[in-house]
Design brief:
This protein is an alpha/beta fold and about 400 residues long. It is built from twelve helices and 16 strands. An eight-stranded mixed beta sheet has the order 7-6-8-9-10-14-15-16, sandwiched between helices. The protein has a five-stranded parallel beta sheet with strand order 2-1-3-4-5, with helices on both faces.
Length: about 400
């Protein structure tokens, strides 16, 4: 992994001057740089690792096959240090002003919102497959390929009300755009379904102690605790909630292998609503991704790796093909962004490693399979499918 990250971070960029005779189309091919701004260090480094692996695998597969109509891809990774907006802006300016990338794959809500104005200024395509804040909706140049909190959180509240008989819900959430978006969605859904939010407790990203917040939550006697945090924080929160004597169901919209290890036995019964990626699915694109990931990195990939593989293999690749087909140059400023906008106006559906196609929308949201999962043992078990806005199961 270290060698891989070094290879994509320390890249020698060669510039070529091509003289094109008058009246002739420019020669096809070259190098298209793909920028990434991820959590490579800090408490969310797990995300940066798997996201870069997913995108890196797609780049390897594409380049091995000769590129996209002669265009080879090159990854350049910058670190937002697990949610630091200032670090994201620094990395974004480097990618845009120095590396001249035409596209950036980003993650986390706050870093994505921080660099979005830069993307608009430079006419750069911005793809997010990790951040979930509801503020990510309707932002020019930004397209999200995972379901956002405003799309997932309502279903975990619906599950809590219908399956757990919840009437009183408490929230513990990240004090940033992502966590606040989850909290807002929980409150709005409770208002619609007739349950009551009896406590709202924000906390800093990466906090490992929640004793004060959990004590206040316990005092309010909720039927269900809803989490709006991510990464390792989920494991710490669940573990400490159980240790403090909060015995009711705990629900959320996030689970990772690391959080499972941290939470241990306390994670049993933890229930989430999230994008439904099935690595055992029979779709041809799913198989290609999963088999390639296992051969390259070992282990079964989860949906974060899938999303960033998808960015490169199933979003960027067809956009580049469209541009080249009409005689354009995909590295030109604004070319990829304009092509994305044109594709959406035409109603183009992009292939997906989730199986079938995914539909991106003009407001930057996406329609993808969703499911409700419960922790059994050390793994997630699917207990409900979300189809047409309703839970089945």
């Amino acid at each position: 992994m270290t060698r891989f990250l070094a290879a994509i971070s320390l890249v020698v960029v060669l510039a070529f001057l091509v003289v094109v005779p008058s009246g002739q189309a420019p020669a096809a091919g070259g190098t298209l740089k793909v920028g990434m701004i991820l959590a490579m260090t800090g408490p969310g480094a797990f995300y940066g690792q798997v996201m870069s692996r997913g995108a890196g695998l797609a780049v390897e597969q594409i380049n091995k096959a000769g590129g996209v109509d002669g265009w080879k891809l090159e990854l350049l990774v910058e670190d937002h240090k697990s949610g630091d907006a200032d670090a994201a802006v620094t990395g974004g300016r480097k990618l845009l002003d120095v590396d001249k990338v035409p596209v950036i794959l980003t993650s986390y809500s706050a870093p994505t919102l921080a660099i979005q104005p830069l993307a608009v200024e430079k006419k750069i395509l911005l793809l997010n497959g990790g951040g979930v804040g509801s503020a990510l909706v309707g932002k020019p140049a930004l397209y999200n390929t995972r379901m956002l909190s405003s799309q997932t959180a309502p279903f975990i509240v619906q599950w809590a009300v219908q399956k757990m008989n919840a009437k009183r819900i408490a929230t513990l959430f990240w004090n940033d755009a992502a966590g606040q978006g989850v909290n807002a969605a929980v409150k709005a859904t409770c208002a619609r379904l007739g349950c009551q939010v009896v406590a709202e407790e924000p906390h800093d990203i990466g906090a490992k102690t929640y004793s004060a917040q959990l004590a206040r939550i316990k005092a309010r006697r909720p039927d269900v605790l809803a989490l709006g945090n991510f990464g390792d924080d989920v494991g710490y929160a669940v573990n400490q909630a159980r240790a403090l004597g909060i015995t009711g169901p705990i629900v959320g919209i996030e689970w990772t292998p690391n959080a499972q290890k941290i939470g241990g036995d306390a994670m049993q019964g933890y229930t989430i609503a999230v994008d439904r990626f099935d690595p055992a699915g029979g779709d041809q694109n799913t198989k290609r991704f999963v088999e390639g990931y296992q051969a390259r990195h070992g282990g079964v990939p989860e949906f974060y790796a899938a999303n960033y593989y998808e960015h490169v293999q199933h979003v960027l690749r067809p956009l580049i093909q469209r541009i080249v087909k009409r005689g354009g140059t995909p590295t030109e400023p604004g070319a990829l962004l304009a092509e994305m906008q044109a594709a959406l106006k035409e109603g183009v559906a992009f292939e997906s490693v989730y199986g079938g196609n995914m539909q991106l929308h003009a407001d930057g949201t996406v329609s993808k399979p969703m499911g409700v999962y419960i922790v059994k043992g050390t793994e997630l078990s699917l207990v409900g499918r979300i189809v047409g806005g309703k839970i089945e199961g």
